[in-house]
Amino acid sequence: MDTTILLSRSVAALNGLATVLLVIGYLAIRRGDRQAHGKFMATAFVTSALFLGVYLYSKWHLWTALGRTNITYRPEVGLTWDKLLYYIILVPHIILAIVVTPFIIRAVLLARAGRFEDHKRLTRVVFPVWLYVSITGVIVWAFMEFSGSLAAATSKLIP
């Protein structure tokens, strides 16, 4: 399997796993199980950190392999309904991913310090954004994978 496709699928898998862990962690705290909540959210945090590492490595790989850091969604066509939908999902995904990251770190630090009321107040806003970013990350990948955009870009790597 091509490295670009493997990295892309790894990024999506880590995003998907983070989504599942976030939901389970949320359900645990709703049941009042702080210990399970802490374990699942800590695992979601580590999974998201791994995601970020693999994502950044995939960008470096694209740069060295293709001379660019992004693969264009369906570059062979003009503006279509699916391309418009892709960008409607992608743009807020990118902006929110950048904005929410320091707040996620802050939420973790508050919980580790035992400042649970401050943690709770912050995560009422941070959690839904983190969940949205995780879910839309998988959706963005699915657009690229199933449209053939990823395969088309990687075919240019083969001489």
Write down the CATH class.
Mainly Alpha
Write down how many β-strands occur, each being a DSSP E stretch of 2 or more residues.
Answer: 0
Order of helices and strands: HHHHH
Overall pLDDT: 93
What percent of the residues sit in helical stretches (DSSP H or I)? over 70%
- The figure for the number of domains is 1
The proportion of residues in beta strands is: under 5%
Radius of gyration: 18 Å
The CA-CA distance between the termini, in Å, is: 16 Å
| Broad shape | elongated
Structural class: mainly alpha
Largest sheet: none
Number of helices: 5
* CATH topology-level fold name: Four Helix Bundle (Hemerythrin (Met), subunit A)
CATH architecture assignment:
Up-down Bundle
**Poorly predicted parts:** none
Name some characteristics of this structure.
single chain, 159 residues, mainly alpha, Four Helix Bundle (Hemerythrin (Met), subunit A), 83% helix
